[in-house]
Amino acid sequence: MEQLAQGFVEATGYVAAIEVADAMAKAAKVRIVMAHKVDGPRVCVICEGDVAACQAAVGAGKALCESRGTLIAANVIPRPDQGSADIRQMMAAMQARKAAKKAERLARRAGTGPASAAPAQTAPAVQAAPAKAVPEERAPFAAKKPAEKKAGKKAAPKKAPKK
After folding, report:
1. Containing H/E element for 19?
2. Measured between alpha carbons, how far apart are the two ends of the chain, in Å?
3. Which of 3, 14, 37, 140 minimizes the number of CB atoms within 10 Å of its CB?
4. Per-residue pLDDT tens for 57-84?
């Protein structure tokens, strides 16, 4: 059984990661395994293929990120351990749990989740007062006149720098 190498490029931003994945796929015969959102704006693109193809693909992705200033890290693992498949499954499970928590949080905000079993209290309706017209001289964005210079005061001459 031929063991495939794995290449990783971590970039700042999802759009940059998509560009990296595109550049990696076009540079060599590799398979893009996943684009994993690490944390915040960081996204890791993982590819598989033979060692030379992964090195070429990671090199292309790294060059693209460096030119855009979004590179965080890049690496190629020539012969990954059999446990690397377990790591990918673990990352997929983490993503699924994260998505489930987010869906639950959104459902609670919308009032359709499990926390919405308690009756929701509504605030009494408040009617807004009609807006008053603001006089032109008090308008917040009115252009202010520059302060008039005081007569008789001259600007102080600049001192020459000491040598």
Report:
1. helix 14-27
2. 78
3. 140
4. 999 999 999 999 999 999 999 988 776 6
